[in-house]
Fold this protein.
Amino acid sequence: MASKKGAQAALIVRQLGTGYPGNRHALSNVSFTIQAGERVAVIGANGAGKSTLIKAIVGMLQFNSGSISIFGKDCYSSHSLVGYVPQQNDIDWSFPVSVYDVVMMGRVRHIGWFRLPRRADHTAVRDTLAHLRLAHLAKRQISELSGGQRRRVFIARALAQESRVLLLDEPFSGVDQQAEGEIIEALDIMSRRGITILMSTHHLENAALRFDKILILNQGEIAAFGAAEEVLVPQTLRRAFGGSMTLLSDDLLMLARQRERSA
């Protein structure tokens, strides 16, 4: 991954508090800053607030307190800068739409409502599909795709949208090792274009090896935020995940340090 020295702040979250009916404090006093081009993994136990944080930044949840800014703009006026890959269960995959059409949806802000795509829009979609090695699936219905292919199609939509920040909610859930590798390859393409990535995941090994920083959530609050070798320490992991993480913590630290030496 490219150096982030001197990069502009892409995402600033300050004292964020938000939640749902019946659980108004799913997140409480959450603050962090991500620099442009950084890759940040959000980890934590089930119910820690990972998806809630992603949805608040996307604008799907109103927040009760605090603020979110994207490249210096209030999040309510800067959602055009953000691409979003939701969890698989949040999408109706039976909807009759092709891969090409899903990626073209990323061009809507450029095309304008009730207008037809221009030549430049079709070129952008074809180029994006080619970059992510999805061109051969362009005419396929999304219902016919594998889990990994579906995630890559939504990453392609964000790339065609010309997003500057990409938010992904558990993209590795329910996919095999080959699909996982293909998703990582797609994220690498986004990174080479300078796109900032924030991803929630249960895949701690990938978080340790492939991300600049890790944000650990515990019961809606930040337990730690920083480089993997700084935050993947036994006491923090035990607090966030329980005693079962004691043995795994040494392995994660070894992976993090291995990544740091090879960077």
Remarks:
- The mean pLDDT is 87.
- The radius of gyration is 18 Å.
- The CA atoms of residues 36 and 54 lie 17 Å apart.
